[in-house]
Amino acid sequence: MDPYCKMTMREQEWQSKTCERGSKHPKWDNETVDLDVKYIGDDIYYVFYDDDPGKDEKICQGVSKVSTWCAEPESDFWIDLEYKGKSAGKAHFATKWNEAEAREIPKEEHESEMDKATKWIAVQQAKKAELEAEYAGIEADIASTAEECDAIRAEFVMCDCDAKYDEDVERANKRNEADLARIERNKEVGQSQKAEFEASMEKKME
Questions:
Q1: Pick from 67, 68, 47, 71: which is nearest to 59 by CA?
Q2: Would you write out the chain's pLDDT as a tens digit for each of its 206 residues?
């Protein structure tokens, strides 16, 4: 085989040179790659191919956490490799970890970010007020409808109705129950949306 390695981390990609006739024990002396680490919890993926005319064939693959690479200033370790769910050997890497220097944020940039945050908070507060007004309207409709329903029920109890009227009353009851169910659902949805919005606002404010 003539193996080579492709390495990826987020949007970063790197490919080694082909190790001519490297077979199962290829070596890539002096092959290096610089990775810009954003988060040590990210994964680094390795895929090894056989350099063939026409179409390269996958040999094996592996993955490791970035934290493995930056546990010490300098380290070397072995990564387990697999092919189609079965062990396919190991790959050896040597690493050097350098922390980036902390960047001082210019005053103008800081003020710009604060201005953006202030405007965003104002927009969210306006949305919250709009939602609260809508929810208050729903509660008012619920209260008004409940009073009408109570009045209708009272009339039903006092009336001495014939069979036809009983049928009308039954239909009215069903329609009334459906309206009450719909109002209750609207109330639950409004309360849920209010709770979710307030939780979201609190999290974003933090």
A1: 47
A2: 899 999 999 889 999 999 999 888 999 988 899 988 888 889 999 999 999 888 889 999 999 998 888 888 898 889 999 999 899 999 999 999 888 776 666 666 666 777 777 888 888 888 888 888 888 888 888 888 888 878 777 766 555 556 677 788 888 888 888 888 888 888 887 777 777 777 777 777 76
Alpha helices in 33-106 (DSSP H): 66-69
Whole-structure pTM value: 0.48
Give the domain-ending residue among 69, 96, 123: 96
Instruction: Note whether residue 101 is domain-resident.
Output: no
SS3 content of the chain, % helix, strand, coil (to 5): 50, 25, 30
**141 lies in which domain range?**
107-205
> Do 79 and 112 sit in the same domain of this protein?
no
Supply the CATH number for residue 69's domain.
Answer: 2.60.40.150
Looking at the fold, whether 118 and 88 belong to one and the same domain comes out as: no
